[in-house]
Specification:
The complex is a heterodimer. Chain A is an alpha/beta fold. Chain A has helices at about 40-45, 70-75, 95-100, 110-125, 140-150, 170-185, 195-200, 220-225, 225-240, 300-310, 330-335, 345-350, 355-360, 385-395, 415-425, 445-460, 470-475, 500-505, and strands at about 1-10, 15-25, 30-35, 55-60, 65, 80, 155-160, 185-190, 205-210, 210-215, 260-270, 275-285, 290-295, 315-320, 325, 340, 370, 380, 430-435, 465, 480-485, 490-495. Chain A folds into two domains: about 1-85 and about 155-240, Rossmann fold; about 260-505, Rossmann fold (3-Layer(aba) Sandwich), CATH 3.40.50. The relative contact order of chain A is 0.10. Classes of the chains: A alpha/beta, B mainly alpha. The interface of A and B includes residues 350, 354, 379 and 381 of A.
Chain lengths: ~500, ~350
């Protein structure tokens, strides 16, 4: 239906996509798999009209076409559902659906409802037209975007990292929906960096690596092997010989002694019903990793920010090493050893335009030895030599891939920014580290490296609070796992045999 | 600018002419637009029926190459430099304080009201100190409302500072006419500080000592913003307030501090102009220096040393342009036309340079 022939796209300094051929056939879920920077997003951008290839051709229904703008892409019947929901949260579902349709006439609600009824019976998506979009879950919002594509009579539907915002059940539902969509004759492109999803949902799998297409598994081949074999095959394509399935050596569990951090009845108000922390209590011992599981947006961020001191607690207490820090500010908590690695690396963790070296000391502005003179000289005179040397040491120790320490941090990849931020949080006397979704958006290699690092941190005697929406991650490294829902901790279970089932029960609201 | 330097160096590779090429490139993207602006403004002059060579020659002669003109140029630089310092603090911290004209004028009123009164009770040195400090304080106070609105309610300061300028200019007028009026004259103006008690001039010339204050202000501001912990905190707030909060900085407090420092310098600029040059304030006087200094500071990319150079040339242009207005009949605000042309062409050069580098 749509064919890419030898498309190439070059950005300053990188060859993002290098002579890639891709055929999108009706009735097929085409999974596009690759690490960060493999070229997935650029391919999507070319198909959806955001960028044009430097070389190569695009054929739509056998005819050569240019896709010069998003509008052109829609006209060719190519719709894209992006990773981040592109809906207006304050409008109703109906209003979002008719956005971009003919502006000169009033939307015909009766006709729309009729077509929605058709979509409901064919694909099982039911929408309440009068709800405000922002109040819906991310999964429901995604369904609105898919329905919008269907209303436009699209022939190709691109789902860009569509499962990254979803719960495991949500992902399964999406998989079933994709199946129904392709049955009706659509071509679906499913972009992911998760192996098992590609193997479970894809009819055809294309693997990208460093901008090149390194392999394609056709439906015939895929059908012949079971899922484990398919995963093995794809891993081979993605990493050559490297395997991600290496077993983690079991940690020296030495979580003992008195708790280093005790949180009692911590309550933080938030903007919405879900986004708050409500009467949260837990204890954390040195050398222990406590995982916080739960669906994104259930107060995890509020909890993390309250612990870091970025948000004031409405009630409750936080005690670090026997010292009440409930009223202490961010800087004081950091000095006492409480560190927070934010989930929003670029938006909050770093100043993109500042050099790596400056970002590495951003939480210690004015502190010796990087500044001299102290409070009498406007907080101290900068000592660029010390700051650069410190940065070079961290770059070396944490294996940060950067041209040098003077490079603006915004030019680094997500994984490398993460390393700089981690280095910053661990420097000095850290006692407790709060991680908020530390591996979110990283590629498989960096995910494994980050998890190993988190385990190593705990082995070194630090206490770790690991907030993650990835249950596998928590089962992989945590000692105990708490489940957070609607701002409350609904239970804490030890991570042993059967933990998965008990956490699953907690997540859907039953007692363990 | 550093990015373009870097790229040119990269292109130069191991070639030893790399740095020289970079310098040539810098000159091209900076001097090229200046020349083009002169030509374009010359065409405007031609359309007005004025010989551009005669005009430029006269402006250069009066603003730069005559001793009297040069002294005036250097004196005029004083308030402009203080305003540049005010803007560099604010812009580097991501605060668009466009209300410097109002802050300037109220600072001027404060000095003009305080100095002639205090001179009867205090020694001259103390009078100058108190009057200048008062000017800075009042300027800072005038920015308090926009500062609090921005710090605690995220109200856009571009709008509020501009509105406060309209209020400030009218309020300054009102104060001169109703409160600080000199009963001894028929024109509405404040009482006059005797020439002997004004800011000392430099080395027997007529150059106001305010020039030294202005130069010190710009250099200190530049060094504070680039070399100290306080400056880095302000720049962090400016570049990414979320990251600043994450790093434990008190963003609202720092925001208010930026407003106070910036508006304080603007008020000081008004004080210097009164204490160094005019000695009194006439109702309706509003030189609107801010209009010209804002683009100059942008041209200098918030760099203090570059700002000094631009302020010097603009000052010469102003002085020469004022003479030319009397002599040749070209309105003195033609200098603003020239600056506007220069800005547009510099932006254009930057855009073309950027595109060329991306293509290459």
């Amino acid at each position: 239906m749509v064919e890419l022939l030898g498309v190439t796209k070059r950005f300053p300094g990188v060859l993002a996509v290098d002579r890639v051929d891709l055929a999108l056939l009706p009735g097929e879920v085409h999974a596009l798999l690759g690490e960060n920077g493999a070229g997935k997003s650029t391919l999507v951008a070319m198909l959806s009209g955001l960028v044009e290839p430097d070389a190569g051709r695009i054929r739509v229904a056998g005819e050569e076409r240019r896709i010069a703008s998003p509008r052109a892409a829609l006209q060719q019947g190519i719709s894209t559902v992006f990773q981040h929901v592109m809906l207006v949260p304050t409008l109703t579902v109906l209003e979002n659906l008719v956005l971009g349709m003919s502006w000169w006439r009033r939307p015909d609600r009766a006709e729309l409802e009729q077509r929605l009824a058709g979509i409901r019976s064919a694909f099982g998506i039911a929408l309440d037209l009068d709800q405000t979009t922002g109040e819906l879950s991310l999964g429901e919002q995604q369904q609105i975007e898919i329905v919008r594509a269907l209303l436009r009579r699209s022939r190709v539907l691109i789902l860009d990292e569509a499962t990254s915002m979803l719960t495991p059940q949500g992902a399964d539902e999406l998989g079933a929906l994709m199946r129904r969509l392709v049955k009706s004759g659509l071509a679906v492109v499913f972009i992911t960096h998760k192996l098992d999803e590609a193997c479970r949902f894809g009819d055809r799998i294309t693997v990208l690596r460093l901008g090149r297409k390194v392999g394609e598994l056709a439906p015939e081949g895929l059908a012949a092997m079971d899922q484990a074999a398919a995963v093995e095959e794809v891993v081979g394509l993605m990493f050559g010989d490297r395997s991600i399935a290496e077993a983690r050596p079991s940690r020296l569990r030495k979580a003992e002694g008195p708790p280093v951090l005790s949180v009692r009845g911590l309550t933080v108000t938030g903007a919405t019903r879900l986004a708050r922390a409500d009467d949260v209590s837990f204890e954390l011992r040195p050398g222990e990793i406590l995982g916080i599981a739960g669906i994104d947006g259930n107060g995890q961020k509020q909890l993390a920010e309250a612990l870091a001191g970025q948000r004031t607690a409405a009630a409750g207490s936080i005690v670090l090493d026997g010292r009440d820090i409930t009223r202490a500010g961010v800087a004081e908590r950091r000095r006492l050893g409480l560190r927070y690695l934010t989930d929003d690396r670029i938006g909050e963790g770093a100043v993109g335009g500042f050099p790596v070296a400056t970002n590495a000391v951003l939480k210690e502005i004015g502190a010796p030895p990087f500044w001299s003179g102290g409070p009498f000289l406007l907080g101290g005179i900068e000592r660029p030599g010390r700051i650069a040397a410190h940065a070079r040491e961290l770059i070396d120790r944490y294996d940060v891939r950067t041209p040098d320490e003077a490079t603006p941090i915004g030019r680094l990849s997500g994984g490398n920014i993460q390393k700089v931020l981690l280095a910053r949080e661990l420097s000095g006397d850290a006692r407790v580290v709060v991680f908020n979704k530390p591996t979110h958006g990283l590629d498989v290699q960096n995910i494994m490296a980050s998890r190993n690092r988190i385990a190593a941190i705990a082995d070194a005697g630090l206490a770790v609070l690991l907030i993650s929406t990835d249950l596998e991650e928590l089962l992989d490294v945590a000692d105990r796992i708490a489940v957070m829902a609607a701002g409350r901790l609904t239970g804490i279970v030890a991570n042993d045999e059967g933990a998965r089932a008990r956490i699953g029960a907690l997540m859907i609201g039953r007692a363990a | 600018m550093s990015a373009s330097l870097e790229t040119t160096l990269d292109e130069g590779g191991a070639d030893t002419s790399g740095p020289r090429r970079a310098l040539a490139h810098l000159a091209l993207v900076t001097l090229g637009p200046i020349l083009a602006a002169l030509v374009l403004s010359g065409l405007v002059l031609l359309a007005l029926g004025v010989d551009p060579f005669a005009y430029y020659g006269y402006v250069a002669q009066r603003g730069l190459f005559s001793w009297l003109g040069l002294q005036q140029t250097l004196t005029r630089m004083a308030p402009l430099l203080c305003l540049a310092a005010a803007l560099i603090v604010a812009f580097r911290a991501g605060i668009w304080n466009l209300g410097i004209d109002g802050q300037f004028l109220l600072g001027a009123v404060t000095s003009a009201a305080l100095a002639p009164f205090l001179i009867t009770v205090l020694p001259a040195g103390a009078v100058l100190l108190v009057a200048a400090a008062g000017a800075a304080l009042v300027g800072a106070l005038w920015s308090l409302l926009p500062a609090l609105l921005r710090a605690y309610q995220q109200v856009n300061e571009i709008i509020t500072t501009l509105m406060m300028t309209f209020l400030g200019v009218s309020f300054a007028n009102l104060l001169v006419k109703l409160v600080f009026l000199d009963p001894g004259t028929t024109v509405p103006q404040t009482r006059t500080l005797p020439v002997a008690d004004r800011l000392p001039t430099l080395f027997g010339t007529t150059i106001s000592g305010g020039l030294v204050l202005g130069l010190v202000a710009v250099v200190v501001v530049h060094l504070v913003m680039t070399r100290t912990a306080f400056g880095l905190k302000l720049r962090t707030v400016g570049e990414n307030p979320l990251a600043a909060r994450h790093a434990g900085l008190d963003v609202p407090l720092l925001t208010v501090a930026v407003f106070a420092i910036s508006a304080g310098f603007a008020g000081l600029a008004g004080g210097i102009e009164i204490l160094g040059v005019h000695g009194n304030l006439q109702a309706g006087w509003n030189p609107a220096y801010g209009l010209a200094v804002i683009p100059l500071v942008f041209l200098a990319r918030f760099n203090g040393f570059a700002a000094i150079v631009f302020v010097f040339f603009y000052s010469a242009l102003m002085i020469g342009g004022e003479s030319a207005a009397r002599r040749i009949g070209v309105p003195h605000y033609f200098t603003l036309v020239l600056v506007a042309n220069l800005l547009i062409l510099l932006a254009l050069a930057e855009y073309l340079d950027h595109r060329r580098r991306r293509a290459g």
